Amino acid sequence: MLNDEPRRPEDLPEAEDTTMPYAAGLGPADPPPPRAAGSRRARRARSVVAAVVALALVTAVGLLSWGALRPVPPVAGPVATPAVSNTPSSGPSATSAPVGGHPEDLATFYTQQVDWQECQGSPAHQCASIEVPVDYADPDGDTFELALRKVPALKAEQKVGTLIINPGGPGGSGLEYAQFSSFVFSKRLRESYDIVGFDPRGIGASDPVACLSDEDMDLLFENDPTPDDEAERDQLIRDTDDITERCAREGGDRALHMSTTEVARDMDVMRALVGDERLNYFGVSYGTVLGALYADLFPDRVGRFVLDSAVSPNQTDEQKLGYDIEGFEASIDAFIEWCVARDDCALGTEEAGARDRIADLLDDVERQPLETSRGDIDSIGEGWLGFAIFMCLYSEQSWPILNKGLAEAFEGQGDVLLAYAMNVVGRSASGDYDDSSYLHAMIPVRCADWPRSDSASLSRAQRAARAEHPLWSRLAGELYDMCAAWPGEPRQPSGDTLAEGAAPVLVIGNLRDPATPIGGTKQLAADLASAVLVTSDSDGHGTYYAGNSCVDAIVDSYLIKGTVPSSDRAC
């Protein structure tokens, strides 16, 4: 996880619910009324998830290529999910009894002992590790060791069960998500659940697969994302193919087993080991894909599921492209509206022409890169600049940084935006990338999850986008299949209704989300057989506990009481 406002890992004060709107006492049938259409949400008081939960936007924009839309089935009355069977632990080293059926050849994993111990530097939290097979088809082969972090329920006597969480990415650290749980989950929710975060297989503290060198990752940003001719385009694609091939070679067999489907199977092992008959889950952004695939694999084991800022595993290239453009247009308009109302707006005082100023800046930077005062990167081009602009749109809290960075960029300097972009991807001033940087996971996970893109279809989409959405096209860069050189087989989505027979799943999203646009959230709600959709009239990425008390009340009442609205809701 990345935090817009750094906090020390060993210093985790309890967040007071009074610092932001939160209607703890409201039930699912009577949340606060929706705010007026077009209103902007309050600035996020807790923006721990702002930068990492998004699907990565680097110079190569890999498009999701998944199935078809399905209608939302009717939900009859407030629905109660089954009570969770839970075996409480008696202390840090106690082990929950495994629960639920499992294949005999996986018994070693489903019945292993879990030794929970105090986390270093955070005695109130418990840490442990478990083993899962690298290849579920070969359970006697190599294994991944997964790192887990548990935040015990504040009121053990009223504990509902365990809530397993994922912050997105792909590649976001669930350990850090749990570590900062007091900033992203309400106190009422934390009283009712043990919260367990984990680093997915191959990521962070879970036997990391670091398949890219620092030079590879720099090259992703240094190449010209908007080639002017076929020679430049060919060079861009050759470099990307070379990086993809090196990742597969360096990552070996483990890199070929980092798919979301395999992580979903890992979560079922966790479910059994924490002692719950059904999995209770909260996933954000890419974490919604993980939740949806788990629900599709194990519909009878779905407990209380919240999928926040969603992406459907059934999206086609064309749908994903349309959603991305829709989300960007809404978000850039919101930023411009906010900016021109300020005395110091880098884009001037009028909304008209503001987009053109950004487009002109990109043209200028292509000809003359922005200078920086850093020794490791003395100038930046469109790659770093476009990435920084996109990431700053994810949260209103980052808009002042974007305004300041644009003002500096118009003067030929790139320090502010480069610093922000480097923080997002975990690059140090010396040029070293964190081992936990989500860029390490980007290629193995994307290439396992998403079918290869059709080049002719991408070319048609590119031409249409350039004509109708020129600023988005400039920032997104060339569209091509970054997984073309990956040796493993991609997942082939069914395009069918997902998770038939599962308990109700709550899908939530902001109307103006640049990272996982509302169109994709609505599609996931349509694709899931038992989904209920809740939309928030808000900007930015991440919906729950972000300033909308209506959303918070619905989510908390569902997770704590097991009830959901009788129909889709707008907050």
TrEMBL record:
The keyword Kinase does not apply. InterPro entries: AB_hydrolase_fold, Pept_S33_TAP-like_C, Serine_prot/Carboxylest_S33. Keywords: Hydrolase, Membrane, Signal, Transmembrane, Transmembrane helix. Residues 470-571 form the Peptidase S33 tripeptidyl aminopeptidase-like C-terminal domain. Residues 1-11 have a biased composition (Basic and acidic residues). Belongs to the peptidase S33 family. This is Alpha/beta hydrolase. It comes from Intrasporangium calvum.
